[in-house]
């Protein structure tokens, strides 16, 4: 014999698989007093609700910020584009009236 304990014939590894993780967790939770279990349960629920509210608030704030910035900066961008178009038209008029080199001198 090699000195190792002999395996018992009645031990079957499949018996452990019958117990689910939830059952095992429930069994472990019974070793704590009721007030501790209630406090942990309440803490988990409150934390979950707070995380959900924070996520919803961040979505709303993000939408408001991007929508507002779009509405505020769009007119500025359009005005800049219009100003560039006017400058290009003025340069084309100068070029037509005074020649190709006159368009770039001021």
UniProtKB/TrEMBL annotation:
Q: Which GO terms describe its cellular component?
A: mitochondrial outer membrane
Membrane topology summary: Single-pass membrane protein
What is the designated name of this protein?
A: Mitochondrial import receptor subunit TOM22 homolog
What stretches pass through the bilayer? 60-78
What's the chief localization of this chain? mitochondrion
Keyword Ribosomal protein included in the entry's annotation: no
Question: Where is the protein localized?
Answer: Mitochondrion outer membrane
